[in-house]
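Appendix B, example 12.
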Amino acid sequence: MCLRKLIAVIFLFIILLVGLYFFVSPVRNIEKLDQTASLSSLAQEKSAHATSLELNGGSPILGYRLSESDVNDYLRSYLYENDETVDGAEAELLPEHIKFYINKHVVSFMESQFVVDVTPNAENGKLVLKVNSVHLGRMPIPMSLVWDRLNIDKTSDVTVDKEMNEITLLNNLPDSISFEQADTTDEYINLSASVTIDSLRDIINLAPYLIPKDIQRNLSQKLNLFGQ
């Protein structure tokens, strides 16, 4: 009788373990993280083909278009530099929203996958990600638990609105840059921002974001020579 109970308990445990694995296991095969270019070098490399400038008599409109491949390069580079617990990551661009797939070992013997669905928007001149849902594998996670576990450095340029389930990015940009558009298709993320230049100080503040670093260095060297 005891043997039968033991077998039943073991059998039940196996069923629970298989069920748990089914719910939290990866829902999509994605690339493993590997050594990649730094975020700054990626920005310099991609800015030439991704950036456009429109002059329509008003404030200049700066456009930035990123392909799915570009987004994945940025995502993997950021995670490689900042989170050693991540095994793999991938972004999927969809009409009006983006899905991020991030592989981590929640427990040592089982790989799990977080699936984060967000919608990018431009709100009050800021770039905002509306978090629609977060899943661990096939299992939804309450947003309150997500925010409690999300450790964002208070000194970073990212802020969280827990009530609205929104993440605001790039808060450290100068006030003279105001986002006008942020949308996605199944091929691209399209961003546009108006640039207000009222003074020399605006130009100085904007230079690090609009002028490639090699040109900045050359200008700095020439200004130093001029000042001697």
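The chain has one domain: 22-220. The mean pLDDT is 78.
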